[in-house]
């Protein structure tokens, strides 16, 4: 199955988000990074902007919440009509209940793991999640370098998903480019976030190049 490409608008022009959404109409999803200045040392956008993005985006929203108190906020973001809501495992007291609340508000429920966070506890409740996001950089900023040391965790996630028979997607986020997408896909990623690699050039062309690079592996 071809991989899904989810360009991150963190690298778009924040004064022209509607225009820059139009430039990725060929993408499968659009990755929207919500940062609160507490969980990560960076601040981006919040609920009112996400609501408008949802209204104008030609592709479904792949929300990535990097905010404290995920149990409270993730279900609220699901109410925007986002296709998928990813919350940060480290910010959730009860990930399974939070995932359930996201689903009951109509979105796919996904959990993100920082590079240093162990996957094993979350494999016990794999059926609670529609996607696992294996962070391939420390969350907070675009344009960082891919961390290959996260690949064993991704491989382990792929093994567990395959063994379970569940349709849990595996996303990677951070430092994905033409140089690193092959590594991510060969280790089991099926959903690919790319910010600077897409918006650093002509977005439609960059998306096509990433798809082609992934297809040589998948
Ligand atoms: C980082 C964000 C990423 C970021 C990726 O915390 O979660 O989504 O936009 O940017 P690139 O692809 O430039 O590493
Ligand atoms: Zn992200």
SSE layout and pairing:
Blueprint: E1 4-7, H1 17-22, E2 30-35, H2 47-56, E3 61-66, H3 70-78, E4 84-88, H4 95-104, E5 108-113, H5 120-123, E6 131-135, H6 151-164, E7 169-173, H7 181-186, E8 191-194, H8 196-199, H9 203-215
Parallel strand pairs: 1-8, 2-3, 3-4, 4-5, 5-6, 6-7, 7-8
Zinc ion (ZN) binds at residues 8, 31, 33, 64, 173, 193.
Number of helices in the DSSP assignment? 9
Looking at the structure, the CATH topology is: TIM Barrel
What Rg is obtained from the alpha carbons, in whole angstroms?
Answer: 16 Å
Structural class: alpha/beta
Mean pLDDT: 98
Fourth CATH level, the homologous superfamily = Aldolase class I
Question: Tell me, what is the CATH class?
Answer: Alpha Beta
Report what the structure shows.
The protein has one domain (4-215): TIM Barrel (Alpha-Beta Barrel), CATH 3.20.20. The longest helix is centred in the last third of the chain and has 14 residues, at 151-164. The chain has helices spanning 17-22, 47-56, 70-78, 95-104, 120-123, 151-164, 181-186, 196-199, 203-215, and strands at residues 4-7, 30-35, 61-66, 84-88, 108-113, 131-135, 169-173, 191-194. Helix content is 35%, strand content 19%. The protein is built from nine helices and eight strands. 48% of the residues are buried. It binds D-xylitol-5-phosphate (DX5) and zinc ion. Residues 8, 31, 33, 64, 173, 193 line the site of zinc ion.
């Amino acid at each position: 199955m071809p991989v899904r490409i989810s360009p991150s608008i963190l690298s778009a022009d924040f004064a022209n988000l509607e225009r820059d959404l139009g430039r990725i109409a060929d993408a499968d999803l659009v990755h929207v990074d919500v940062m609160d200045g507490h969980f990560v040392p960076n601040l981006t956008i919040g609920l009112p902007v996400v609501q408008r993005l949802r209204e104008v985006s030609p592709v479904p929203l792949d929300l990535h919440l990097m905010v404290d108190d995920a149990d409270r906020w993730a279900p609220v973001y699901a109410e925007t009509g986002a296709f998928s809501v990813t919350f940060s495992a480290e910010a959730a007291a009860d990930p399974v209940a939070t995932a359930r609340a996201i689903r009951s508000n109509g979105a796919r429920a996904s959990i993100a793991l920082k590079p240093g966070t162990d996957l094993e506890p979350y494999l016990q409740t794999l059926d609670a999640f529609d996607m696992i996001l294996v962070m391939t950089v420390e969350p907070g900023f675009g344009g960082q370098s891919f961390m290959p040391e996260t690949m064993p965790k991704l491989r382990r996630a792929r093994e567990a998903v395959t063994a379970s028979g569940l349709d849990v997607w595996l996303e990677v986020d951070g430092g994905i480019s033409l140089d690193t997408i092959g590594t991510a896909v060969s280790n089991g990623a099926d959903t690919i976030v790319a910010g600077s690699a897409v918006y650093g050039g002509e977005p439609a062309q960059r998306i096509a190049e990433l798809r082609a690079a992934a297809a040589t592996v998948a």
